[in-house]
Amino acid sequence: MSESVCSLTPPVSPYVPQDQDVDMMDDFDSPPLIFLEEMEEDVGSSHSQAREAVCFHCQGEVFPRRGTKFYQHCKFHDKGPLMSDILHRICIRTAASEPNCTVDLFGSFPFMALRDRTEKLFRFARQTMSEIQSSFDEDGRSIHARREDIVNFLEYVNAFVQRCLPEDETDRRRFLRSVLRHLHLLLVHCGTISEEAPVTRYSLEQLGSVHHNFHHRLELMWNLLTVFHTLTTSPCAAELPLDVKLCQWSGGEDEVRSVFDQLVSLLLCDLLTLAVPVFEKLSPHEWLYTSPFSCACVMELWVLVIQLLQHRKEKFNTESFWVQLHQILQTVGNTDTDNLDTEEELDSDVFVLNISPAPSKPQGFCLWVTTHLAHLFTFDHHGNSTSPDPTQSCFFAIQMTVEKMMREPVKEETLRACLRCCLSVSSLWSPPKQLLTVLWEHFSRKLNDRFQLHTTSIEGLAVINKSSKSLTEKCRKWTSDDDNGLEQESSFHLFLRLLAKLLGHSGALSEWRQIKGRFFSKFHQRRMQELGETGLHNMTCLFLTVALCVDAEEIARKLLTLYDMVDPTSAYGRLRAQVWCGALAVTQLLVKERKNFSFLAEKLASSFNSMAKQLSGSLMDYSQKQELSPLITLYVDGVRDIVEQSELDGAEHLFIDEGIGAVLRSCSDAQMRHILTALDSVVMRLRCLVSGLKQVQPWLREYQRPSHAAFADRLWLHVFPFVCDHASTLTPPLSLADLAVSFTHLALDFPAPPSVCSEGIRGVASQFVSSESTHPSIACHYLNQVLADQSLKNAIINISTTTTNFPVPSSAKATTSALHKASLPLTQTDVVKCWWRCVLLMPPSSSSLVELTQHVLSLPDTQWLTSSNDDNVRMDDLGSVGWKQLLKAIGSRFHNSQNLLEKQKVRSQVMPYFVDSVHQVAAVLRTSGPLETLLNVYRVLGYLLKHCAPLLYLQSKPCPLPEIIKSLILPAPVFNTDRPLNPNFISVVRDTLHLFLEGLGRLDYRRDTYIQRQVRSIVAQYLPRFSLSVMDVYNHPVLRLLGRLAHQTAFTDADFDGFVADLIVENLRKNSNTVSSDVISALRTRFRRS
Q1: How many of the other CB atoms lie within 10 Å of CB of 1000?
Q2: Interacting residues of 119 by C-beta distance below 8 A, sequence separation 6+
């Protein structure tokens, strides 16, 4: 807008105030006159449009946002004082009106009327103010027009005293005194802002008389402040009278202050008084998120005052906003100034500076107001967002408030609110070390406290971290700008956030060096002995937070020194858990920063080894071992977390020591599974690092760093022996097989030491594939992963080699066979033999076994065996019966072989698969249980004989069939009639005997007396052992065979059923005394021979 404005016409037509003296207007009914011709060169055009009065336009309540940007989302009204550049005009001393034209105020006046008709103009102003205050039912527009008149008038006064003061000093002094007196009267006539404070907070809809009267007082205060600013900063400021007293403190004051400073104090007291009712309704939890500004106009007035006072400080070296505010806040709650001095009587036109009623929590009120006012420094004098000047920090005031607060016991809820306010301000300015020192003096005495709210809510519960990783992440969160969950954090955690703010800037190291003595001095031998679990946890959090900001290695060494002072009697209790947790957490920090941590690793490993020895000792009872369980989990998880974020180029190998193996052998099953999973992650991390180095240096062997080799050796020495030993137990977890596979991968780059395994990767694989001591579930799970990994499969299994040597049963050459196989690589035969052991000993519905069966069927050797022309054998989509179909296919392949040489080739390949079947199931046969496993053994071997008996039987050489018959069907107890047979044995024989007889029926029984003897013995032993009643005759296992043979003639001698029938009839005749005549008659009719 042009500066050649010659009129201050409001947007509505000027009006004549009611009851206005007509005679008074007669003096101003002449046409407009032109004054001060000497200033005409500053005038552009006498016909310029009038400037609209700058009033407050209410936009409702103000709600601060959570986070650091409290009020930056707020937008001031375009026609309000801030957006109208009124501060800019004040700062460059540009008047809103020019002196050589008329002004439209309470009518049309010459510009020089203020000097000639001072009394009358101010009388009009007071009358207009009275109309605003008394217009309860009047239209809002007319009230707003009167507000604009007052604003225009005060802007006119400001422009006049800036440009048109009398030249004569005496006249000038007289005129200034008159103007000050009338301005004072205006102030007295209007009253303070808080006198007209509404009951409820303002909104856009509340545009009644109370709303206008309240905003009229805001406008009056602001415009009076601008006039006083002009007067006190003009060249004639020294000529202002010094005896003008607008206000004074309730206890009296001797200091002579300028009218501007007096009005500032009055305005600040008034605005603070306005905020007290709001504060009294708040709980400490709501301090940070409830504004002290009753509406947006109040906030805008605060911004105007802040900007004006800061401008005066920069240009005239006066007191800053914070200094003047702090002087007033110091009186809040001060009982010395609550009562008036009885010896001094105040004039009726002098305002008393006090905040009444006083807030119930004076220090909380001061902190609340200061925090919200601090965020108003994010606005510049144009009302736009900006970054606050570092020199404008208010932390000196906050520090004094906190010091007063700490002099008395403080509730946790209040202290949390206090620290949230400090954190909020720290987003604008860095907190001073003096403030942190004051707070540390408080918290250092209460480290054993849980800093918990005394409520039933879980919000206040203190949480002690159970792992070093969670502890590190929590401390790292405090050092970041992430303020999620701020409302749930304890006062101590908020203090650590504030400390991180101090140490988070570029000069943090020097700041820490200045205050670390105050922190370290609180921890000495006696104090460390006094700390409990919570105290140690809080101390650890403190040191970790500092370590994240400054020199982590120095903090780690100091922390380790303090841990050594912990009471040794609690070395294996909860205190020791906190010591380990803190040491592991600070180790993670050092690993991430690539700094030396060997001193921590040695200390932790030694402590863990000592604990492991006690755990494995026989002197500890169950409850004592349970107390050590959290320590084991803490250590193992911590080591895993350290390894996963490191390059394994330091002292990480020190963590893997003899204690790991000792703990694995003595801990519970659940904890063992947890440790095995963690160790698997550790081995995989080493593999990934080596794999990455291989990709970078594929032509070099330098990827095998010494530190990697040292780490691998520790794993081989202290972990792998347990994996091998525990794989042979009755109930090993499947996670053991996962770890075994990881070790097999590791052996590709780091072979096991000779003392552990002398044959490299093939020796490792044979431990879990060829060793019959390994539990079948481990072997099955292991093989599945090996066969699914092509690189590992090629490394340990010679797919192109087929063993053609004819093996002997393990019972005949056990020692020789073991030594011979140990020198050979794994072959397909080894894989199939391992699979066969799993089929015998595992449930057929096991998903792991089904998967392994599919892998076995894809081997070249088995594919050759199943490539039969028999259309009845299908090898696709087999599910849990895949093993059965494979046996059928092998039998078909052998039966369909064209000549003796081809049959010999099939036998040579297949015989090693089944040669040790009886040896593999010997433990189950010896105990006749469990029943499910025993039944599975009989069923599987029964089908083996049914389909493959001709392949498994040789008259001239040792073969597995006789041993199977002897061990499963005709063991020695069967022939001992003095002792009853095991019920489990009787049960499984009843269900599976027919399978073995069907297999024997495929042999040439006519020319083989051994087969004849075995069939005779079976019929003789089992025919009388089962019921031969008429109702059960067809359920008898021996008799049921004949019905099956009648429908399954393939590969079976056509006369075998007659041979068996003759044996049955013969035995029935011998036992005619024990069998009823009806049964014998029925059987003779059923099996009568022609």
Answers
A1: 25
A2: 182
Cβ neighbors of 882 (< 8 A, separation 6 or more) are 850, 853, 854, 857, 875
Q: Are 222 and 304 in contact (CB under 8 A)?
A: yes
Angle at CA of residue 997, ends 994 and 998, nearest 5°: 85
Other beta carbons within 10 angstroms of residue 781's beta carbon come to 27
CA 283 to chain centre: 29
Burial track 334-349 (b if 16+ CB lie within 10 A, e otherwise): eeebeeeeeeeeeeee
Token couple for 1009: 């007396």
Q: Say if residues 1051 and 1066 touch (Cβ distance below 8 Å).
A: no
Per DSSP (E only), the strands in 13-162 are 102-104, 108-110
Tell me what pLDDT residue 229 has. Answer: 94
**C-alpha–C-alpha distance, residues 735 and 931, integer Å:** 27
CA distance 153 to 158: 9
Residue 879, φ and ψ in degrees, nearest 5: 65, -135
Q: What's the 3-state SS for 247-304?
A: EEECCCCCCCCCHHHHHHHHHHHHHHHHHHHHHHCCCHHHHHHCCCCCCHHHHHHHHH
- Note the pLDDT tens digit of each residue in 799-809: 764 544 434 44
Taking alpha carbons only, the member of 224, 379, 372, 369 closest to residue 303 is 379
Cα–Cα distance, 147 to 129 (Å, whole number) = 8
Q: Which is it for strands 797-798 and 826-827: parallel, antiparallel or unpaired? A: parallel
Cβ-in-10-Å burial (0-12, 13-18, 19+) of 997 comes to buried
In 3-state terms, what secondary structure has residue 798? strand
Exposed, middle or buried by CB within 10 Å (0-12, 13-18, 19+), for 1044?
middle
Looking at 317-394, list the stretches that DSSP marks H as alpha helix, in order from N- to C-terminal side: 321-329, 362-374
The pLDDT, as a whole number, for residue 52 is 76
704: how many CB neighbours lie within 10 A of its CB? 15
Low-confidence residues in the chain, pLDDT < 70: 1-51, 67-68, 93-104, 107-110, 137, 197-207, 251-254, 335-347, 455-462, 506, 568-572, 696-704, 800-825, 868-879, 1029-1034, 1042-1054, 1071-1090
218: Cα within 13 Å, side-chain hemisphere: 29
Which spans in 622-731 are helix H?
622-644, 658-666, 669-696, 706-718, 720-726
Q: What share of the chain is helix, strand, coil (3-state, %, to 5)?
A: 60, 0, 35
* DSSP bridge partners of 412: none
CA angle 451, 454, 460 (to 5 degrees): 50
Q: What is the pLDDT of residue 615?
A: 87
**Contacts of the segment 751-754: beta carbons below 8 A, 24+ positions apart:** 752/716, 752/720, 753/713, 753/716, 753/717
Residue 980, C-beta contacts closer than 8 angstroms, at least 6 positions apart: none
Residue 1058: exposed, middle, or buried by beta-carbon count in 10 A (0-12, 13-18, 19+)? middle
Q: Are strands 108-110 and 102-104 parallel, antiparallel or unpaired?
A: antiparallel
Rounded Cα distance between 865 and 948, Å, is: 13
Reduced to 3 states (helix: H, G, I; strand: E, B; else coil), residue 794 is helix
Q: What is the pLDDT of residues 27-60, one digit of tens each?
A: 433 323 223 233 333 333 333 344 678 999 988 8
- The CA dihedral of 791, 793, 799, 805, to the nearest 10 degrees, is 140
Q: How far is CA 27 from the centre of its chain?
A: 80
Give the global pTM: 0.83
For residue 549, give the nearest of 502, 582, 486 by alpha carbon.
Answer: 502
Which of 723, 718, 791 has the alpha carbon at shortest distance from 755?
718
| Preceding amide of 930 cis, omega within 30 | yes
Q: CA-CA distance, 295 to 298, in Å (whole number)?
A: 6
The rounded distance, in Å, linking the Cα atoms of 837 and 857 is 15
